[in-house]
Specification:
The protein is α/β, with parallel strands linked by helices. It has one domain: Alpha/Beta hydrolase fold, catalytic domain (Rossmann fold, 3-Layer(aba) Sandwich), CATH 3.40.50.1820. It has helices at 41-52, 72-84, 99-114, 130-134, 156-160, 166-177, 196-204, 227-240, and strands at residues 8-14, 17-24, 29-33, 56-60, 119-124, 140-146, 182-187, 208-213. Strands 1-2-4-3-5-6-7-8 form an eight-stranded mixed β-sheet, with helices on both faces. The longest helix is centred in the middle third of the chain and has 16 residues, at 99-114.
């Protein structure tokens, strides 16, 4: 049995862009955005834990081959494609990746269907900052950024950049001031994250909840999974989306 066989397939369209989706569970909505190279077994396994905790999980399929394992080969196949895709801003500073508009539309649709205070949004690695960009929309009540890596941290300016336009950053500040917290996860010496956590602390202060682990590993929820990281994410979703665990 394939890992996604028990998930309901669908698609979402916005602004002329369509991506497939996989959905499972019941309860408040949570959007889990996969890392490179795509919907790996580890990403799906983490999503299953969120489902088991009592949430409706939607997995957008943005790139890669669903269920393909994390390997040097799959990364080498996907990486060049996403780097040239117009949906993702990989090097420019002070810009929001265009795919954020599609993700915000998906969040609004899920929230309109399920109700409640909003939906959760979690990005990881290449997509880590996308949950922050989704926070601009009021439908997102529980943004989680796991080891955000865009723009690629080449130089100090890019390493500190949040992959947000000035207008979107202003909206993030306003929502944080209004009580919307942001949960961030990383390994403390992960070079891919750059100094973005310091930027977030400076921009939104105590609204940024930092969870940091010692070492130079990267994927806090998947390849280099920390149980504390998973537990903190589930507790954050429960608190922000009014779900008793």
């Amino acid at each position: 049995m394939a890992l996604l066989d028990s998930w309901t397939t669908g698609q979402h369209s916005a602004d002329g862009v369509t991506h497939p989706t996989y959905r499972k569970g019941s309860g408040p909505g949570v959007i889990v955005i996969h890392e490179i190279p795509g919907l790996t077994p580890e990403v799906i396994g983490f999503a299953e834990e969120v489902v088991a905790a009592g949430f409706t999980v939607v997995l957008p399929h943005l790139f890669g081959t669903p269920e393909a394992p994390m390997s040097a080969g799959t990364i080498a196949t996907v990486f060049p494609r996403v780097c040239v895709s117009r949906e993702f801003t990989t090097m420019a500073t002070g810009r929001t990746s265009p795919v954020a508009g599609w993700l915000r539309s998906l969040a609004r649709s899920l929230h309109a269907e399920l109700g409640g205070p909003g939906v959760g949004a979690l990005g990881m690695c290449f997509t880590g900052g996308f949950a922050l960009a989704m926070m601009v929309d009021d439908s997102v009540a529980a943004p989680v950024i796991a080891q955000p890596s865009l723009p690629f941290p080449v130089g100090r300016k890019r390493a500190a950049d949040l992959n947000l336009s000035p207008a979107d950053l202003a909206d993030v500040r306003a929502r944080a001031a209004g009580g919307c917290q942001v949960l961030g996860l990383r390994y403390r010496d992960d070079l891919a994250v750059g100094t973005r956590f310091e930027t977030l602390t400076a921009e939104i202060g105590e609204a940024f909840v930092r969870v940091e682990f010692p070492g130079k590993k990267h994927s806090t929820l998947t390849e280099h999974r920390q149980q504390e990281a998973v537990d903190r994410v589930l507790a954050f979703f429960a608190q922000r989306l009014n779900r008793d665990l």
